[in-house]
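With this grant's support, we have settled on a layout for protein records. An illustrative entry appears below exactly as we store it:
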Amino acid sequence: MSDNDKIKEVLNRSVSAIYPSREALEKALSSGKKLKIYLGVDPTGPHLHLGQLTNLLLLKKLQNLGHEIIFLIGDFTGRIGDPTDKLATRKQLTEKDVAINMKTFKEQVGRIINFSGKNAVKIAFNSKWLAKMTLTDWIGISANVTVQQMIERDMFRERLKGGKPIFIHEFFYPLMQGYDSVAMDVDMEIGGNDQTFNMLMGRHLMKTYKNKEKFVLTTKLLEHPKTGRKLMNKSEGGMINLDDEPADIFGKVMALDDVSIVPVAELCTEMPLADVEKIKKTLVDGKSNPRDSKFDVAEAVVKTIYGEKEAAAARARYIEMFSKKEIPEDLPVYKIVENNLTAFGTIATIIKAIEHRDISNSEARRLVEHGGFEVAGTVKKDPKEKINLKGGEIIRIGKKKFFRVG
């Protein structure tokens, strides 16, 4: 628990800020005391993505150090929606929506952290306490925070400037996330640096209700090094989800532009930082082919999620496809507009979008039945099969027409 090298890696890699200070947390981690640490995730969709791998890898290190780890699913807060970074109010979800979304969360996260064994990660749901709270409870909690404190949040200020509405329930979100810390009586919370306001609210409420110091560790976000744009953006496509197949993950990482592989290597793999620095140099020295580094990073990502065997197989499959010129490197991109179509309906939609021509359902059906439709290396022969594209998959129609889903 007090392994200095492992503690330094926790504090050095992927960390954005530490509250109250790095020195205080290092002292606590080195003391031999077992800390109660949590990460919260709202089930606003059914897939966890590559950007969330950063925090899961940090949890893994802390679990291996022997600390008590809680993976909190915000099944109550998820229904309201975190206003962080949102310039418009989120659509509220139903209990049924949330239940469907979180159905495979444990399975996805379980590839990184352990829910069994000697120091098993505990799973919790914040509806256990939040759903039972009364109006009297919430009046008491909200009495600890001013409206001025709330509108310090940048996205609220942006909405005020733009004349856009801020709803009262959105002020309650950071209070609810903050109260999670009180309900679980934790020592530490980790999360992306876009969650700083919410996590510090928990720190404030812990001092108020428990007279206790709560550590907050914020992590770097998976962003494009030049533009600052989030690499995992649902609205722009190209999501890399933790439950994607290994070959899909490999292909999607390879589809990223060259400079994006550096933050992916640092934040979403267990590659040594010295190797990450070497990759940075290959992008500027002009002597090495960046594609070779992308192969290594793509394999490392798959290895982190699925293990070494699956990672090696994904790399071999990708090399085989391109070395045989089965797939051109510069693929046209099909932007998902409609989803969950039948196999032949998907073909017809893609042809219309990419080639600007129509194909009859009977012709598309025959293509499927004769093996002329492949998604991410899997031939689809049932014309009525539902095809749910996530983004990043390579699609083959006929013998030589390839597209990448955007």
Remarks:
- The mean pLDDT is 87.
- The CA atoms of residues 187 and 214 lie 5 Å apart.
